[in-house]
């Protein structure tokens, strides 16, 4: 049975793992979506930002390895996986703070309320899984791990988890081949498919991380008993291989997901799926349910449910805009001049022009709908003399890579029209 000091140390390490991982996500997203010299100096310093954005991405990758590998592993040696998963989910609150502090993202009420709900759910899980020291086993020999994989409940759960990862991965690979990110302007996906993939991409990543967490916990538990013969079973090298494959897949998938989708919209889905799967892994695969009294289940399950509710509340603001950053730029460019992308020369002309640009209104087709402004700048007058389609489209493209506070509104202000077929051309 674990001592209280070890449980408290595991809780502190789980929260630290969440904070480190949240910081790594912000760093990697900035490296993937900002040009090298446009990255916020507060995030990486001018020296590092000016060298190469790949160096910043590598820094984020190292932080990710420290958070999800080193700190997470030590926390897992002292607390149950169901408790670790809930505490690790506090990374969403840390991500909200880091995104605001380093990238200048807005602190909207849905995001703040969602983070507070997630923290409340994590506290419920912590109370249910730690108060009274329920004595959940955290050390497993290789024979114990082999028995867990061979148990009907454990084998069924692990097979379903891996099958979920492979099925979503196959669908995403087809989507990447059909609608590659570098050609999305030529052939944008349908709106319903874009919305579906905005959930499937990060959810698939979260399930892959759940496989990595499960196998990592098995590997660490066996390593802690190697001096007592805990690594003698063939399941030990097999677990190492599964952990390595899922971890490498996570690293590759991170770059794909966060290049296509914003952190604030993808991260809650990713770790909502990962945390729910981790709690299920603890209760079902590692059979932690045998150590919990009945009164603990409402707190643990209710805490997980509350975390998922908080995630959805936090996404309410993100759902009002297209999930893909490139799609948002293309949407705005289409509003301004359908079928006529901005040229490099027009983008350069815009960078030298004053920041005050105008965006024509998006109007209906005569059935009584009201017009609304495009959202990037004040609406044009009836006869805008100084606003050309090329210049405004260039503004849409360049604003994606603009540093917050650099004279142009941030990306979050872009809005998609409700029905693209109603877009009125200039001069209409």
Automatic annotation (TrEMBL):
Looking at the UniProt entry, the stretches that span the membrane are 12-34, 55-75, 81-103, 115-133, 145-174, 235-258, 294-314
List the GO terms this entry assigns under cellular component, sorted alphabetically.
Answer: membrane
Q: Which SUPFAM superfamilies match?
A: Multidrug resistance efflux transporter EmrE (SSF103481)
Membrane topology reported for the UniProt record: Multi-pass membrane protein
Q: Where is the composition biased (Polar residues)?
A: 388-400
Protein location: Membrane
Q: Which keywords label this protein?
A: Membrane, Transmembrane, Transmembrane helix
User: Out of the domains of life, which is the source?
Assistant: Eukaryota
**Molecular function per GO:** magnesium ion transmembrane transporter activity
Q: Where is this region: Disordered?
A: 373-428
Q: What is this protein called?
A: Magnesium transporter
Q: What is the organism of origin for this protein?
A: Diacronema lutheri (Unicellular marine alga)
Q: What is the lineage of its organism?
A: Eukaryota, Haptista, Haptophyta, Pavlovophyceae, Pavlovales
